[in-house]
Structures are given as structure tokens and as C-alpha cells.
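A student in our group prepared the protein record below, which I am reviewing. Here is the record exactly as it was handed to me.
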Amino acid sequence: MKIPEALTDMLQRAQRVVVLTGAGVSAESGLATFRDKQAGLWERFDPMQLATPEAFEQDPALVWGWYEWRRMQVMLAAPNAGHFAIKEFADHVSCLTLVTQNVDDLHERAGSLAVHHLHGSLAKPFCADCRRMHMLPAGIPHEPPNGRRVDPPRCAACGGKVRPGVVWFGETLPQAEWQLSARAAGECDVFFCVGTSSTVFPAASLLPIAAKAGAMTIQVNPQGADGGALSFDLRGPSGTVLPELVRLAWH
């Protein structure tokens, strides 16, 4: 795929860059998305039905088991070339704001700092009652849970059930992360939307915010997207497109 010269020229001059990533970036590391067919014994469950506060209240062991299985998949996965290219972006611009809809830690493991998780993080569970953070044991269990219930741990402070540290359907985004992301989108020179179709709100509103403020906007996704607010629509996997952008702009 040919990278437009106007894009690489702008990247070389850019002072403020925002990168928004979605499930497609993690999928390139082998992590299933909510839309993918689930593996093993979890095939009989609908992830959409497990990702709610009501589901956790009704069957906390089922929901905790499902998210522990997801967390184990993340721990077994590795960052891909797209994650490392985004980290390298930060080495070449004055200010890079990395916003992700993903709940894994692959950006951090690729070396990116100050990753803003709009949908929370599997690595940061907390008490459902008092909201105190809960420390997870290090390492991967000998037998990661697959299709079985696992009782959630109890809070050391109040004894309440510990819940996954993700934003479920019906819950609001973390306001500090959202406000920082929206402000960065409105002040950036270049806005990347990577591995997401930009259809899930409110995250999908970040690209129009950047476009309205005059930023160059770039979509990187194999399926492409509606180009109404886009300066460039780069159709390809992030692990291929982003390293090529780095090479052309800075090497």
C-alpha cells in the first residue's frame, strides 16, 4: 500500500498527535474481540450478556471466570508491530496522546507510557462496593479458567466482591480519561484512528472533534471507514501500515 507523501510530511512537522486504538490492534496479537466466535467452553455464552453490572450481581462467579479467562489470554499474548510503531511515534513528536478502547495492557508492554484506557483495564479490578483497587497475583495459573465459574476474590478493606476493572454496558466512561482525551483531540495536529470502525460512542466522537479543529485525520483499518471526516483512509492492518509510516517519516 502506498503511503501518501502529504501524510509523512505532516507527521514530520506535527507537534501534537493523538492515537485512538480499538479491538483490531489487539486482534493482530491474537486476542478475540466481542464480535468473534468465543473459544472452547465459552462458546455457549454471549459476551454481551456477561458485560453488565446486572450479570455480575446475578452470577458473579460466572462473570469473574469469564473475565479471568480473558485476562489469561492477554497475559499469553504479546504486543505486535503496530503497538511498537505507536510507541516509536512518541519518540519523534513533541506530544503524543494514546487513547485506547482496549482493556488489555499490550500498549504498556510495548513501552508506551500514560495510556488512557476509556473502557478500563483487565489488570485493575476493584471492589464493587467500596471501589478499592485489588492487587492480582502475578503469573499465569497452571490451568486458566475456560468455561467455568470462579468465585471472585473479596475486598481486603470491606469484604465486598471484587469485580473486573472494565467499563460495562450501561456504565459511564472514566471522566478524567474522557475529558483528557477529548481535550487532546481538539488540540492536536494529527489524529489517528487505528483498528476501530469508529462507530462506538462516545469514543467515536473523538475523530470528528479533531477534524472540526482542523487536524489531519487518518483511519488505519483493513475494512476502511466512512471517509466523511477523514483526510486519509489507509486500508490495512496496523502492524503493517504503522511501521511503514514510521520508516517513511523518520528513517
In short: The two ends are 18 Å apart (CA to CA). Residues 21 and 194 are 5 Å apart (CA to CA). The chain is about 35% helix and 10% strand. The domain at 1-30+79-121+172-251 is CATH 3.40.50.1220 (Rossmann fold).
